[in-house]
Amino acid sequence: MTKFIASAALVSILASAPAAFALQPSAIPDTGTFTKAPVGSTVTIETTGKFGNRYQNYFRVGEDGELDFVFQDSAN
């Protein structure tokens, strides 16, 4: 019975671990469209999250000029 409880505890810990490394959606800005940037180029927008953490958000310019989110990095 203790092996079952220990394995259940381990599974619950591992299931919650990815949430700790998730993106901070409050730090991803709403973006518009670009008219002069080349298609496929990368744009970096530095933002601040709701808890004061700074982030660098990387976007790629699509064919329609819209920005597609690529990657987020902590700028601390």
Concise synopsis of the structure shown:
The protein has 1 helix and 3 strands, in the order H-E-E-E. It has one helix spanning 2-20, and strands at residues 42-48, 54-61, 67-74. The chain is elongated and about 60 Å long.
Question: What do you see in this structure?
Answer:
- The protein is an alpha+beta fold and 76 residues long.
- It has one domain.
- Residues 17-21 have low confidence and may be disordered.
- A hairpin with a 5-residue loop joins strand 1 and strand 2.
- The protein has a 3-stranded antiparallel sheet with strand order 1-2-3, with no helix packed on it.
- It is 25% helix and 30% strand.
- Residues 1-22 form the signal peptide.
- Keywords: Signal.
Keyword list:
three-stranded antiparallel β-sheet; 76 residues; elongated; 25% helix; 1 helix; alpha+beta
Q: Main sheet?
A: 3 strands, antiparallel
Shape: elongated
Q: Quick one: how many beta strands?
A: 3
Q: From the alpha-carbon coordinates, what is the Rg to the nearest angstrom?
A: 19 Å
Note the total helix count.
1
N-to-C CA distance:
45 Å
Mean of residue pLDDT? 73
The percent range for strand residues is 25-35%
Name the poorly predicted regions: 17-21
Q: Topology as H/E string?
A: HEEE
Q: Indicate how many domains the architecture comprises.
A: 1
The assigned structural class equals alpha+beta
| Percent helix range | 25-40%
Numbering strands along the chain, what is their spatial order in the largest sheet? Answer: 1-2-3
